[in-house]
Design brief:
- This protein is mainly α.
- The protein folds into two domains: 84 residues, no CATH class; 91 residues, no CATH class.
- 53% of the residues lie in helices and 0% in strands.
- α7 runs antiparallel to α8.
- The chain starts with 8 loop residues before the first helix and ends in a 9-residue tail after the last helix.
C-alpha cells in the first residue's frame, strides 16, 4: 500500500499559484473575450460617499446594451464586465465575496446595492419623500424636480403611487396648491395616480416655461 506523502509546513504555507475562483458563476458553455475598447467605456465606481450606486448600474447597463456581442447573452456580458467597473475598495470587496455564490445579474445587483446602498440610507430617503414640503421661494418646478430626484435616488422606496402624489400635493405652498387644485377641477382625488402625476408635471413645466399662473391645462 502506497502512503501519500504529507506536505511540510513550508509547503503548506506557500502561496497558491492557481487562479482563485470569483464570486460569479459563468456559463461554462459560453466563452468570450472583453476587448479593452469595451472595458474602457465602462463607468467607474469607487465606493465613495458621494457616489450613487443606482446611477452606476444605469450607466453600466447603457454601455453593455450598446456593445452587443454576437451570440453572447447580455447577462453573461454584464457578469463578466462588472468587475472592470469597480475600483479601490469596491474591487477589494468584490474579491471578498464567496466564490461561486452569484449566478445571475440580478443577484450581482442585489449584493452590490446591499453593500453600497445601506438600509439606513433607504430609510432616510423614504422619510424625506413622506415628509416633503415646498420651501419658501421654491418654484413649483423646483419642488417637483426635487421630489423626482428623491424618488430616482431610491427606486425601491416601495411607496405606492397614490401616496407619492398625496405627499407631494399636501406639501405644496398654498399658492401652488390652489393652482393644482383649480387645474384639476377641484377633484385631483378623482384622477388616477398616473393622470395626477401628469397634470402636476405639465403645470410645473408650464410655469417654468411661461412664468404664468393663469393658464390651466384642460381637465
Amino acid at each position: 500500500m502506497v502512503v501519500a506523502r504529507q506536505q511540510t509546513l513550508k509547503e503548506l504555507a506557500a502561496p497558491n499559484m492557481e487562479n482563485q475562483p470569483l464570486c460569479k458563476n459563468m456559463d461554462n458553455n459560453v466563452n468570450f473575450e472583453l476587448k479593452s475598447g469595451f472595458t474602457h467605456l465602462l463607468p467607474i465606481f469607487n465606493g465613495l460617499a458621494g457616489e450613487d450606486p443606482h446611477t452606476h448600474l444605469k450607466e453600466f447597463h447603457m454601455v453593455c446594451v450598446g456593445m452587443k456581442l454576437n451570440e453572447v447573452d447580455e447577462e453573461q456580458v454584464k457578469l463578466k464586465a462588472f468587475p472592470f467597473s469597480l475600483k479601490r475598495a469596491t474591487k477589494t470587496w468584490f474579491f471578498s465575496i464567496l466564490p461561486g455564490s452569484i449566478g445571475t445579474w440580478n443577484g450581482m445587483k442585489k449584493i452590490f446595492l446591499e453593500k453600497y446602498f445601506l438600509a439606513s440610507r433607504v430609510a432616510n430617503i423614504r422619510k424625506e419623500i413622506c415628509g416633503i414640503r415646498q420651501s419658501h421661494g421654491e418654484t413649483l418646478f423646483e419642488y417637483w424636480e426635487r421630489f423626482e430626484q428623491l424618488c430616482i435616488q431610491c427606486p425601491h422606496h416601495q411607496i405606492p403611487d397614490q401616496l407619492l402624489i398625496q405627499y407631494l400635493y399636501e406639501g405644496m405652498m398654498p399658492t401652488d396648491y390652489s393652482i393644482i387644485d383649480a387645474a384639476s377641477g377641484r377633484a385631483l382625488v378623482d384622477k388616477t395616480p398616473e393622470a395626477a402625476r401628469q397634470l402636476i408635471t405639465n403645470m410645473a413645466a408650464n410655469l417654468k416655461q411661461f412664468g404664468t399662473r393663469g393658464d390651466f391645462p384642460s381637465k
